[in-house]
Design goal:
The chain has about 550 residues and is mostly beta strands. Among the domains are: about 70 residues, no CATH class; about 120 residues, Jelly Rolls, CATH 2.60.120. Helix content is about 0%, strand content about 30%. The strands form eleven sheets. A six-stranded mixed sheet has the order 27-29-31-34-35-33, with no helix packed on it. A five-stranded antiparallel sheet has the order 1-2-3-4-5. The longest helix is centred in the N-terminal third of the chain and has 4 residues.
């Protein structure tokens, strides 16, 4: 049986901070008040209001006197020097003093040792989950971390020892942090920057190889020298020759192998000349003993050429010139092709995808510019002996474009549509006929207005003695705009029937004229008065026309 002493309050309700029981300690009753007062006490105090839901958390408070009594004071004044909460938290009002050489530990009793001079030694690796803030001091020894694997901020780091494990700023230190950004570099290779990217290393250069830049991309390499201690190679403009060995009077000459040789002057006499030998080399010879060579041939106006196979001259015709630009000079330079014979003459431009020629077609004595290489085949532009110029041939034409001074303004003959088009420009067409009198309608009883619009976009008709009962609009083109001016008879008014309009003379190709408002106009009846009509062709065969009355009952002007 466990024996115990129970101190129990008789308050019916326990609230937060109520004292449940208290043990007090005092000296014997002496004359002085303080000497006889309670100098220490231990009491239990509620941490919450008690209820039927098992809420009875209580703390144990230890209080000692310091110039006054500890007991018989209100609970709110009893803060205590040491409090043990219901959660096991021990709170001290003052300091926790460890004796000199004392230890703090659990099963490891010396986990934390405090020396007499205040130096604290931690014999186990401490874990600081919220970090370490060292101000005004130093950290000596080894910092090893367990769950925290990085030191976030450290300023004033004086000395860094060996970093045994882990990485520094990632696997490779980046360029932005003063590193190369690379794990390894080629031994003997030249390093190349890559902006903020990792430095790269070129391969080890070969013997005689140098690095050359192009002011934009990574530099490249060329084999410029015969060796690292050699001379500049001929492929890059060098002589491949130690020119320090050249004496006065020596001459540099090609050897046929790319390198340059020295034709020495040693052993030759004053007045010797440098000549080309039969084997193609150069050497010094006496100035005398030379002779001219004769050239045999049976070609008039032939060209003399040098034949390297036997070191002779030859006369050739049909010369093929492959030397690049050909200049014909002189005060009045000219080139003549042909000899007045009965044959075609030409210049051919040999293109990769298309050949062109300019030539005289002797068959019809025309100058032609065409496709291909045979004169007269597929001519595009032809100039006859009379000076007349034509483009294409009958039934095989080409588009012809004439540009104006304004951008996108041009005149084009469209071969596929057989139509002349004007883009972003204007044109002028004379009246038909181009005279001061219009075309008179015939005087028969069944008068017909027959207009061929291919002759012009403007026609002027003068009515005769008969009424017009039929109108023929020939050769209209879709998109064409036309103007018809009809002048009334000078003495008696005649009518014009717009209900009988054809597109040709067969009387079977009816043309639909759609008037504004759906009603055909009536010809002005005043003698000599003029009506003006406009038409827009809307069909490719000319059988659909929009009709517009431009003006009616105009007075005729005797001057045109």
């Amino acid at each position: 049986m466990v024996h115990s002493i129970t101190l129990q309050t008789y308050d019916g309700t326990v609230t937060d901070n109520d004292i449940l029981g208290q043990i007090c300690f005092a000296a014997p009753n002496e004359e002085a008040f303080a000497a006889g007062a309670v100098t220490a006490s231990i009491f239990a105090r509620s941490e919450t209001s008690f209820d039927d839901d098992d809420n009875n958390e209580t703390e144990l408070v230890f209080a000692t006197a310091s110039g006054g009594a500890t007991g018989a004071r209100p609970a709110s004044d009893l803060t205590g020097d040491m409090t043990l909460s219901s959660a096991g938290l021990l709170t001290l009002a003052g300091n926790l003093v460890i004796p000199d050489g004392g230890n703090i530990g659990t099963t490891d009793t010396d986990a934390i040792a405090i020396a007499s001079d205040g130096v604290v030694t931690m014999n186990q690796i401490p874990v600081f989950s919220a970090g370490i803030n060292v101000s005004g001091g130093t950290i000596a020894g080894t910092i090893a971390t367990a769950t925290q694997n990085s030191i976030t901020t450290m300023t004033g780091l004086v000395t860094v020892g060996t970093i045994g494990t882990g990485v520094w700023q990632g696997t490779d230190v980046a360029v932005a942090h003063g590193g190369t950004g690379a794990s390894s570099l080629t031994d003997g290779g030249i390093l190349l920057g890559s902006g903020t990217g990792a430095i790269t290393a070129m391969s080890v250069l070969g013997d005689g190889v140098i690095v050359v830049g192009d002011n934009s991309t990574d530099p490249t390499t060329i084999t410029a020298f015969t060796a690292s201690d050699g001379v500049l190679k001929h492929e890059v403009g060098g002589l491949e020759l130690n020119i320090s060995a050249i004496a006065i009077g020596d001459v540099l000459a090609g050897t046929g192998t790319g390198a340059v040789g020295i034709v020495t002057s040693t052993g030759h006499s004053d007045g010797d000349v440098l000549t080309l030998q039969a084997d193609g080399t150069a050497d010094w010879e006496s100035a005398g003993g030379g002779s001219a060579r004769s050239v045999a041939g049976d070609t008039n106006n032939g060209i003399v050429t040098w034949v390297t196979s036997d070191n002779t001259f030859a006369v050739e015709s049909n010369l093929s010139y492959t030397g690049g630009d050909l200049l014909v000079g002189g005060s009045t330079p000219s080139v003549t092709i042909g000899d007045a014979g009965t044959e075609d003459t030409k210049l051919v431009f040999d293109g990769a995808a298309q050949d062109f020629y300019i030539g005289l077609d002797d068959t019809d004595d025309d100058l032609k510019i065409g496709l291909g290489s045979a004169v007269g085949t597929t001519p595009v532009i032809t100039m006859a002996g009379t000076g007349a110029v034509s483009v294409g041939v009958d039934d095989t034409g080409y588009d012809v474009t004439m540009y104006g001074a304004t951008a996108s303004s041009y005149l084009r003959w469209d071969e596929s549509e057989d139509r002349l088009n004007i883009f972003a420009g204007s044109f002028r067409i004379e009246q038909v006929p181009a005279s001061n009198a219009g075309t008179a309608v015939s005087d028969d009883s069944d008068a017909t207005i027959n207009i061929d619009w291919s002759r012009g976009n403007y026609h002027w008709i003068v009515l005769a003695e008969a009424n017009v009962t039929k109108i023929i609009f020939q050769n209209m083109k879709r998109g064409g705009r036309y103007i018809l001016r009809i002048e009334q008879h000078a003495s008696s008014a005649k009518t014009v029937a717009w209900t009988n309009v054809d597109s040709d003379e067969s009387n079977t190709a009816f043309t639909e004229v759609r008037w504004v408002g759906g009603t055909a106009p009536t010809m002005s009846t005043g003698t000599g008065r003029v009506d003006v009509y406009g038409f827009l062709c809307t069909r490719s065969n000319g059988r659909g026309v929009d009709g517009f009355v431009i003006a009616q009952n105009l007075a005729e002007d005797g001057t045109h």
